Fold each of these.
Amino acid sequence: MPDWTVFRALALAALCVLWTGAACAQGAAKANKTLTVLQQAADKGDAKAQYTLGEMYLLGRGVRPDYANAFILFGKSADQGNAQAQAALGEMYVRSLEVPADIQKGCRLLHEAALKGADGAQDKFDRWCAN
């Protein structure tokens, strides 16, 4: 039986990542509850929650931008095989977003993500890694 609370929190968080901060700010209490549910799920090892929180921290949607926290969350999710997290982590390495540049590692992650069909991973790999 799926945990619908986590699913609803993931869905709302995804909308917050896609929409402007104004759309997310409609209900501060609801947003805080969503963040709490996502954080709890991420702490329990939910790869989708870790990736979603990472995106929120990377983009500053519903939270203060925090590249270091985004990097940690993407890493945990990527370690579990989440293709979108692998792509995001790869981009952070290639573009040196608050982490030391590691082109080889970034390109490897982007390639793995592209093989799994992660959105935009192949384009990023082609742009930054293909010689």
Amino acid sequence: MNNIEQNTTLTCYGDHLKLFTKDNKEIGLISWHTFPGGKTLEIHLVSVNYEFRRRGYGTYLVQEMIKLYPEYVSTYCHSRSTNTGAHSFYLHLGFERIFEAKDLYGKNQDAVFFIKKL
């Protein structure tokens, strides 16, 4: 058991996980959508409260989500092209940058898509 597992509580609410400290303060969450036919997970959101960032909690949330679907073959996500912090996070986790979608979030608000084979 790692330090995060020892000092936190992870709760699953169907299509999202929430991570709490032992005294019930929310650390962060991950939400996703499944595509059963294609066995692909789409990450909608990974969010870690500011005071807990850069300590491995986001990585832990992604890893725990993936463990819930051992039969799935890939996961993908997208973020704003200006969100370089998210890009670094996903690349660090082994995601591959696959393409950009122009104006996905509105005029002049492009998206970058990432995929990870499981």
Amino acid sequence: MVDRAAKAPSSGTGPRGETGDNAAAIRVAKALADPIRLRMLNVMAAGRAACCTPSPIGGAAPGNEPVEGICVCELQSLIGLAQSRASYHLRILKDAGLVTETTRGKWNYYELDREALAGSLAQLAAAAGAPLP
């Protein structure tokens, strides 16, 4: 099993010269601004319960640990996306630090990083002057 955690948002310079936390907040805001990506996050938040099968390969993913995330093929089916489009949106969510990716054999599984999402939402709320409850 290969676990590729989401990249931590860099403190480098963004596409328009934004730096540090500001650039990370902009990446998160852009990631959350798309309805397809919000649907993907909803599916990941529901976890395996959102899927019709235990896993796309009958619950027997390579490795000994149970599968926790949602496979790209399941997101394609549930949301109605081509593989390339699903991968594009997942890359944006990963680059924003909102999801993690685990590779099991030839399948990639994605999970919502709840801590990263909560931290990002708190940061965006603080930037807007409205702290979360």
